[in-house]
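Table S2 (text version). Query chain:
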Amino acid sequence: MKAELLLSGRLDAWFAPAEPPPLWLFVHVPKTAGSSLAADVAGIVPPYRSIHIDHTDRSRPGPERFDTATEAFIQAQETSPARVASGHVQWRHVARIVAAVPSVRLFTMLREPRARLVSDYLYQRSPMHPLAAEVKARIPDFDAFLELRGQQNRAARHLAPRRLIDAGDPAPVIAHIRSRFAFVGIQERYELGFRALTTRLGRQMRPAARKRVNEGAAEEKARVMERLDAPEVQARLAELNAVDLALYADVAKAWDVIAAPLAERLDAMMAEA
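Corresponding structure-token output:
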């Protein structure tokens, strides 16, 4: 079961019956409605386990702390296995889990990169983030946020090896994700993607949870969006996030093509259930 089958419109092959995997792993790209998705999926395929770190722990870089969290997750799977798990893991952590649980199925959600960057920027400065004061002191504005290495091609770094991303050619990154993930959705078609994913999980549902939504900062968002319209910001964003932009464009274009036949297929499946 590969996302390539879904994204290329081969719905019969993607929906073909298959043995349930021992684990579904949601690779959660930040600010893609992932908290809501994880909350809903946790109720469909229990038990659920979160792969997370203490963000207030500044003793080691985040990826290194996720190394430790990943190893702890793998050990926990041996004694009390979860059927679905999620976390802001990067590909190096995903690869470790795939090696330990070879039959794991991966799924993820993308979001238009400009919108994702703005949402992440606003979230990190909001009361919802435990390090908001530190973020504001260290990163004075959106321009500075764009320059953070950790925010450049953020989605791709969670979903593909760093060597592919650093090479600068989006095509191998896209091929890697299409062939290794079972499902790749986009936030802009969230409900349709959720219905397709949950059908494969065993029970078609519509989304219910709505988690970690930043309703504040309307004035700050307006200022950021105005700045985002500046040609020099648009150019810099495109330069630093070329892989993410190409990845999203590829997947969004595919969803544009499959949306109508997929919705028709899901409606028919729900009527037959």
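Notes on Table S2: Residues 204 and 270 are 7 Å apart (CA to CA). The mean pLDDT is 93.
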